[in-house]
TrEMBL record:
InterPro entries membership: CSS-motif_dom (IPR024744), Cyclic-di-GMP_PDE-like (IPR050706), EAL_dom (IPR001633), EAL_sf (IPR035919)
Keywords, comma-separated and alphabetical: c-di-GMP, Cell membrane, Hydrolase, Membrane, Transmembrane, Transmembrane helix
Gene Ontology MF terms: cyclic-guanylate-specific phosphodiesterase activity
EC number assigned by the record: 3.1.4.52
Main location: membrane
Compartments (UniProt record): Cell membrane
Swiss-Prot/TrEMBL catalytic activity: 3',3'-c-di-GMP + H2O = 5'-phosphoguanylyl(3'->5')guanosine + H(+)
SMART domains, A to Z: EAL
Protein known as: cyclic-guanylate-specific phosphodiesterase
Xref: PANTHER family: CYCLIC DI-GMP PHOSPHODIESTERASE PDED-RELATED, CYCLIC DI-GMP PHOSPHODIESTERASE PDEF
Transmembrane segments: 246-268
Tagged with keyword Transport: no
Keyword presence, Membrane: yes
Length: 523
């Protein structure tokens, strides 16, 4: 469950990051586009404003009497000189319209006598403006700027038109663009699709948005009381998905798959029992316990059996829990080598000093199909000057699967001077046939037959039969798992030479074993 969650997180995290980066990169691109658009819009708005006010200035310098033919002539010249200016004209002090460059002087009549409403804004230099668009005679809805009895009118579209097309950087989002008079906080012009009140609200928002946060940009002019607001549209999700940078997304997905694969591999490699066991082999996490073997006649120790343990996170794991896995996964040979190394590291001095003692080592099927371990053993003993008969071999019948190979390897161990014992004798089906095939030095009677001694069970006499058979074949007997005196004396009486079990001693550390032997020699 936990592992599945890890793999899932490993897969989804990079994909999610990819999505995040895809969105960020999309937003960054969007923000870049908005910024460029705002810059261009501000340039254009300042340009239009400059034209309108310089047209106003030029009209102010015309010396002719307002609405005379020469005055109108001058107005027409000024209007054509300034692209943004659509019309210009004169009004009287009450705002009544007098004449325009387009319609000329107007007599009181059809159009005459019309008044402009009071202006929306008065600037410091006497400039007045009408932000509500005025329906000027001869013109359309116009943005009108005036001063001292004259005015200029402009199509507000001049402020915003063409900004996007001039930018010319690919498919610009269908953004809203507005120009605002910052002193009056009034909208001067917007693109047709934009919502003026929304743009004004964005402009009034006190906090300038962060680069990525909101899809809009406000730019204020440094020299004029105007600002532009550019907002990106809130596109529908499918629209945004289509424009997502797929590189980031696919990259994230690919990284996710790779990471998940790696996580799965890591988990199998390091967290599965198999992975942990191979780690243990690599890190030499095995220790060895020594269980004394005693002569049943004298009760003196003659040697010990080396029993491997796995020291795993301060826990001691018994061999029954990992030897089968190690055999199955091809790790057993490395473990056998480490057991031998440990035995020699801990007991080589002892064995050299007391050549009558021995240590027996358990081998598995993997060790019995090739003479590999014999080579390792031979080289190690030559280095340590320990006699071959001091290292003995215990082989279970499970190790005789390939009977021909086992026969050869067992023969080679014996030829090299290592006595060989058949372990767990009697628990396999073919114990007898093995005995006829192989020459061995001793049988170890399995604990299960020792357990039943003194009970009325049918198997209670098996131990005695095995001892008889061993005598016939002229091999020695070691009885395992002796826990009670009754068992020891029975086995001795039936002719078993050696015994091993808690009655004598549990498995010991090397130091404990050396002390145990020392005590026995004195006593
Ligand atoms: P085994 O070779 O039959 O070893 C005897 C087992 O019986 C040991 O268990 C020992 O601790 C236990 N034992 C000894 N005396 C008594 C007793 O009086 N009462 C009881 N209840 N138990 C007793 P251990 O150490 O857990 O080993 C279990 C098996 O693991 C061994 O059985 C052996 O087949 C295998 N093994 C141990 N060390 C190695 C090794 O280095 N290599 C290989 N391939 N197998 C090993
Ligand atoms: Ca054994
Ligand atoms: Ca056994």
């Amino acid at each position: 469950m936990f592992l599945a969650a890890v793999v899932l997180v490993a897969a989804l995290l990079p994909a999610a990051l990819g999505l995040l980066f895809a969105q960020r990169s999309l937003r960054a691109e969007e923000a870049g586009q908005l910024n460029r658009m705002a810059d261009a819009a501000l340039v254009q708005a300042e340009d239009v404003t400059r034209h309108l006010s310089s047209a106003l200035g030029e009209i102010g310098r015309v010396s002719d009497e307002p609405c005379t033919a020469s005055y109108l002539q001058e107005l027409r010249r000024i209007v054509t000189a300034h692209r943004a200016v659509g019309d210009a004209g004169a009004i009287d002090h009450a705002g009544r319209w007098q004449c325009s460059s387009l319609l000329g002087a107007v007599a009181l009549g059809a159009l005459g006598g019309r008044s402009l409403p009071p202006p929306d804004w008065r600037g410091r230099d006497g400039v007045i403006a009408w932000f509500r668009l005025l329906h000027m005679p001869g013109g359309e809805q116009s943005f009108v700027l005036g001063r001292n009895g004259y005015y200029v009118a402009a199509d507000p579209a001049a402020y915003v038109e063409g900004v996007k097309t001039r930018l010319n950087d690919g498919p610009a989002p269908a953004s809203g663009l507005g120009v605002i008079n910052t002193e009056a906080s009034r909208v001067i012009a917007t693109t047709p699709s934009a919502d003026p009140s929304l743009l004004l609200a964005l402009y009034r928002k006190p906090v300038q948005p962060g680069y990525f946060d909101a899809p809009y940009v406000v730019r204020r002019s440094g020299t004029m009381p105007i600002a532009v607001v550019v907002s990106a549209p809130r596109e529908a999700l499918p629209e945004r998905l289509r424009s997502l940078p797929w590189g980031w997304l696919l990259g994230g997905l690919a990284a996710g798959v790779a990471l998940a694969g790696w996580a799965a591999f890591f988990i199998v490699r390091h967290m599965s029992p198999r992975g942990q066991l191979s780690d243990a082999v690599r890190r030499h996490q095995f220790i060895v316990a020594y269980q004394p073997i005693v002569d049943l006649a004298t009760r003196r120790c003659v040697g010990a059996e080396a029993l491997v343990r796995w020291k795993h996170h301060d826990r001691i794991v018994r061999p029954d829990h990992f030897i089968p896995l190690a055999e199955h996964r091809g790790l057993i040979q490395a473990i056998t080598d480490q057991v031998l190394d440990t035995v020699l590291l801990e007991l080589a001095e002892f064995l050299k000093r007391y050549p009558e003692y021995y240590v027996s080592i358990n081998l598995s099927a993997g060790d019995l199909t090739t003479p590999r371990f014999l080579g390792v053993l031979r080289a190690a003993l030559a280095r340590q000057k320990v006699r071959p008969e001091q290292i003995r071999i215990e082989a279970t019948e499970r190790g005789f699967l390939d009977a021909e190979a086992a026969k050869e390897v067992i023969g080679a161990f014996r030829d090299a001077g290592h006595p060989v014992y058949i372990d767990d004798f009697g628990t396999g089906y073919s114990s007898l046939s093995h005995l006829q095939n192989f020459h061995v030095d001793a049988l170890k009677i399995d604990k299960s037959f020792v357990d039943t001694i003194g009970q009325d069970a049918a198997s209670s006499s098996v131990a005695s039969h095995i001892i008889d058979m061993a005598a016939t074949l002229d091999v020695q007997v070691i009885a395992e798992g002796i826990e009670r005196e009754e068992q020891a004396s029975y086995l001795h009486a039936r002719g078993a030479q050696f015994g091993q079990g808690w009655l004598f001693s549990p498995p010991l550390t090397a130091a404990e074993f050396i002390r145990y032997v020392g005590k026995m020699r004195k006593g």
